[in-house]
């Protein structure tokens, strides 16, 4: 019996959080869309219709034309109910707006507030702390009797410790931030979401706002030289950021700044387990690690989509998109595009070139890309040489999401430094 999904069914996956929990079926559907309907109209109950872009060239072209394609008013895919809840929240004077939501001069001015903290020079100053945290988390693996849930016990914690150290938050608050981040991005997942409703999502944001409101007040009263102090005391056009903008900035960095990296680290190890020849290759030639990191980012594509809205009538891949219509940029699809990547469904630790779009492109290129690469490289530089053996110890599980996510469980069994 033919169980292949139709083009229409494949298009509906973009609005189905559960679709991202079945990697094989997801990529089968995305491949069909690339072949048969690369600019695909999606109409799903509960969502405003949109166009899904699945080819690398189309996603890249939209990302680079930031005058024609705007982040506002729909920076990511949300249900109509959630859009309404967010609008109501904004009407109460507690609007959540980050550089992800902004365009033009406003975006440039706000991005500059934290840009210097994520440049290569600043990251070099962070490398010692990153390596220390990588070593600490691999050492903890040695304490687990040769078995752990790598996604939950290692990948979820290590990048969080890095980003919250950069912000200057106390380690006693890290578990709270981890829980809130997982609730924010895993809103549709039964293991991580807070009820799966718009109200639950809004309540997570309210908890984050309350925490960072207090932090803003403390850092303005007593700056401490960390990134949190830089945001709290930043001025645009001579004025301090209002509380909503400052708090939104914290939320963006504290959540997106670690969840995407943790997904890549967990997915990277799973890829090495499933491709043992690539793990041996990396162990035998550590100089391949920077290329392997890029391949992990391509393979996992932890950011599933962003959206852009046409400021004028446009043509994408030969399809007319009307002014005011929105397009969804599918990064998992663009990063498996056969026109760009040779044998894209094969994990290749030495893939070069690797023109993945895991960090986006254009003016919205990921602010924390250098930090993410530094973290992933440091963790695997510590882990790979110490792994004598590694394999799955149960079935992996992925987060149900339409925005950001990856493995939520990765049970592994291993020998590390000769200990099992």
TrEMBL record:
InterPro entries: Cyt_P450 (IPR001128), Cyt_P450_B (IPR002397), Cyt_P450_CS (IPR017972), Cyt_P450_sf (IPR036396). The keyword ATP-binding does not apply. It holds the Pfam family p450. Keywords: Heme, Iron, Metal-binding, Monooxygenase, Oxidoreductase. It comes from the Bacteria. PROSITE patterns: CYTOCHROME_P450. Belongs to the cytochrome P450 family. This is Cytochrome P450. It comes from Nonomuraea antimicrobica.
